[in-house]
Every structure is written in C-alpha cells, then in structure tokens.
Design a protein that fits this description.
The protein is of the alpha/beta class and 169 residues long. Helix content is 33%, strand content 20%.
Length: 169
C-alpha cells in the first residue's frame, strides 16, 4: 500500500476468535507491519503491552474475560508510554451504546466488523498523522475526542438572541 513505511511498527492484536486474529495478522502484514503479536486473552495482552510497548493495539469489543473497552481503560490508566498507545476497537456491535462505551474508554477509533483492509489502513495512517492532545480528567483518559476543531464550511448563522451560541447550518 502506498504512503508510509509501516515495517518498523509493532502491533498487538486481541480477539477471542482465532480466525479473526489470523485474518487481522495477515491484513497488518500485508500493510508491511511485520511485528504482530496475537492474544486471545486480554489479560495476557495487557501484561505483554507493558513490556513489548507496541505502536498499536487492535482489540475486539466483546470478549469473555475482559472486554475491549475495559482493556482500553486499563491501558489508559498505565504509566507513560503505555497509556499513550493508540487503540483501535473492532466490534460487530455498532449500536450507539457500544460505540460510546468504547469511545469513553479512551479508544482512538471504533471500527465496525467486518472491517475492510482499506478502512483499517486509513485508520492506522490517521493514527500516525493524529496530533490530538491526550486528555486526562477524572472521568476520561485518552485522546481528545473532538477530531476536527475547524469550523464547518459555509456562512456563520447566529440566533436572534445576542448571547446565543453560533449555529452552523
């Protein structure tokens, strides 16, 4: 795939499905990522991330022992540099509740399964180019959730009230 040389990236994959792990490993390797460690058990993955210090963690959302949002939250609560590790959450459950839970855990992106190679590649490139600040509050640890701080295109529309917020239409 054109663009960045991803051969020096390290990745950790976490999914309770051996099929998904193998598929994701093949996809990442096709992008040039050679160092990929796979885990069916999120607890083992969490331990490995502390020593291996990958550039990327890709995790399933729903797993029996520790789900992807709890794994992400645990990573975010670790000391630097582990807490800054980019996390992509993959899920077959794309309802609002699951997406918000993953986002609130500190995930960089939430992607729907089945994920295409192109979509996964675009998100990895987005992570490389991502310059969002890291936020640490009592209720949230992770990348700034507002992705695009630029103003929407088009004319500014103001409400008749002088102290009203700006509305974009």
């Amino acid at each position: 795939m054109p663009g960045y040389d991803l051969t020096r990236l390290n990745a950790v994959l976490v999914d309770d499905s051996p099929f998904m792990l193998k598929l994701l490993q093949m996809i990442l390797r096709s992008m040039g990522i050679r160092s990929v460690r796979c885990f069916r058990d999120p607890v083992s993955a969490l331990i490995e991330v502390k020593t291996f210090q990958p550039h990327l963690v890709v995790t399933d959302m729903l797993m029996p022992t520790l789900d992807g949002s709890k794994l992400t939250r645990a990573l975010r609560e670790e000391a630097a540099p582990v807490c800054f590790t980019p996390v992509l959450v993959l899920s077959g459950f794309t309802d609002k509740e699951h997406v918000i839970r993953a986002s609130n855990s500190g995930a960089n992106y939430v992607l729907a399964k089945p994920v295409s190679v192109e979509t996964l590649h675009r998100r990895i490139i987005s992570l490389i180019e991502d310059n969002r600040p890291f936020v640490r509050t009592p209720s949230y640890i992770g990348p700034e959730r507002r992705i695009d701080k630029r103003r929407p295109p088009g004319p500014e529309q103001r409400s008749p009230a002088a102290d009203a917020d700006v509305l974009y239409i």
